[in-house]
Amino acid sequence: MDQALKGIKVLDFSQLLQGPFATQMLGDLGADVIKIERNGSGDIYRGMTFFNQWIAGDESPCFMAWNRNKRSLAINIKSEQGKEIIYKLAKEADIIVENFRPGVMTRLGYGYEDLKKINPGIIYCSASGWGDNGPYLTRPGQDLLVQSLSGAIMTSGKKSDGPVAIGTALCDQVNGLNSVYAILAALFYREKTGKGQEIKTNLLSSAIAFQMQDYFTVQNLGQTFERPESKIGHPGNPAPFGMYQTSDGYLTIAMSPWPKLVEALGDSSLMEYDDPQLLFDQRDKIHGIIEAITVTKTTDEWLEIMLALDLWVAKVNDQKDVENDPQVIHNNTFVEVEHPKAGKVKVTNIPFTMSETPGKITRPSPMIGEHGEEILSELGYSRETIENMINENIISIEKA
Amino acid sequence: MDQALKGIKVLDFSQLLQGPFATQMLGDLGADVIKIERNGSGDIYRGMTFFNQWIAGDESPCFMAWNRNKRSLAINIKSEQGKEIIYKLAKEADIIVENFRPGVMTRLGYGYEDLKKINPGIIYCSASGWGDNGPYLTRPGQDLLVQSLSGAIMTSGKKSDGPVAIGTALCDQVNGLNSVYAILAALFYREKTGKGQEIKTNLLSSAIAFQMQDYFTVQNLGQTFERPESKIGHPGNPAPFGMYQTSDGYLTIAMSPWPKLVEALGDSSLMEYDDPQLLFDQRDKIHGIIEAITVTKTTDEWLEIMLALDLWVAKVNDQKDVENDPQVIHNNTFVEVEHPKAGKVKVTNIPFTMSETPGKITRPSPMIGEHGEEILSELGYSRETIENMINENIISIEKA
């Protein structure tokens, strides 16, 4: 079967998280993604990891997670020969993605205006931290910093906690998704009209747009969110919406009709709270009352009772339990690929199905410059010239 | 200027959050989105809100946030005449989006196989909670429930907190973004080949894929994340990565070279911790040591000192302060639109720029069935027939 982006070439200057996530999504649907890395050391993210631990000696799980379905060319893009190669690749590319600080690509001779001259139909996406201009132009833009400035860090947990970081790289990943959204719309438009264009995304705007519902509320309802002191699951929501301790774990109850929940809990005196305003105003107290009941049975017992009443409930899984969840197994969420150095690694599958053009994982994350010879041969460089470039430290090729 | 999706027609059966967010993104880039609502009461989300408070009497900020750039047709889709209208709209549509529980659309006669007969090139996206099949098929799928089952709820805050809900509708919104990613790739493919297709997305798979980096680590490094007990900002990261109290608020410090940070803090004895393993193992203790220093100055004072050393720092904004942040003002993040009932409302702008086909906000969220007459006239129905349909309760039209 075909893939939706088969035949599309992506020239990827991005590193760390947001850009690589975006280009990986293009690769997942069949695009040929050429990852440009620093010769020798590669993407900065290769040098960062969790727990100060590494896979197969020196491979980073952070890097490996966001760089499947790509080929790597490790090259000194400031050298004359490097520039010649980049221009040749740009001439054949459909999409360019970069996430340097604003202005860097232009200084290197690879800005939109430069590459448009070589390839007028190019779609060029620059993904920055704060925007391509403005007061924070020169400041470092990074996920946790953007969580902080965008208010996202003040939306989880309890008010008395102060800021609570969201455990995923929320802003990076949402901007990766927004970059793909804009790039694919531009690609469709180019297919119809022949016109390329420049796209500029940034972490800050994406982080705020992701909180669109909260901001709409704060700005138009004139009431500010105050996080609850209990495990109510959203600062704007009434009881019972939240997480409840059971005798062996946690049960989550989402919006559910109060009388039905009272029936499930088996204490009809709780009907005194059957009023939307009371359920909001006294949510912390009501949470405590419910939890005093939920701790008396196991999560599975409550699920059986409550699902039978079509209450909106689910159990809480720790990340380490998720791969054994029956629906996760059914959905084929985790698959294995063979990595040249690390052997079999488990990766997260493409999270949706397309009947005609399925996503596929055809490559693990590359070694640094692993595909240098292959990519340069495709451009017509001879084996000898390639050897010379390795000797002159213009490119580097790592093999397992 | 053009818009990228100008001329594309979306027939939108979705309600609540994930589906409407997806179709709003298509509308933001120029698609003509026809929102199909229940005649009379409309989208279920119109009846849900925060704080039990409403805008202009009975408008929900939750609904309003996700339904700009759409026209509404409120119609009984089970009636014979309703079905005739839906089939006519489906014949002209490019994209169908729905997020009923799996099987509902087929039972109504609007499944992919039904509409494909009418319109072979249709792109049909079904967005479910858990997947289109499997053990949780009949269970309610909702954002907080999916946060719980996917492990996302165990990644923020402190370990001793137990589950901590992420303050935005993370799973709904990420699946909205993934649906748009798949739909636009399918649209590009159709433009090249003429072939439509069926897309199936679900909240659970999107929630897990969004934690791709964490899962890659847990499954391949063989070490499980344990959340810190201090305000270290990620369970896998060492000090100083986290949030620190200052004399007037909070300062966030992301990955920064330890010697430079020690210089900024002005206590060279801290160089004893200049070791990646120590910075991870003793992160909670080190967080406390740093915070004892940061509380002695204001956030702005620390920003001045630390940004001069190119340390990765930012201040923490509460959501209510964000609209006054100078970069947010510069980015034109919030704009006003005129709503027929609520008057001027502030909305979050499209979070990126496209040089040739900019996103635009041309309509506020619609009233229930507001565009019924206009849409039915376009299909060729006479004013008299439309009046009859209103009288027979097949459609309803709300005006301000």
UniProtKB/TrEMBL annotation, chains A, B:
InterPro entries: CoA-transferase_III_domain, CoA-Trfase_fam_III, CoA-Trfase_III_dom3_sf, CoA-Trfase_III_dom_1_sf. It holds the Pfam family CoA_transf_3. The keyword Transferase applies. Keywords: Transferase. It comes from the Bacteria. The keyword Hydrolase does not apply. One of its GO terms (molecular function) is CoA-transferase activity. This is CoA transferase. The lineage of its organism: Bacteria, Pseudomonadati, Bacteroidota, Flavobacteriia, Flavobacteriales.
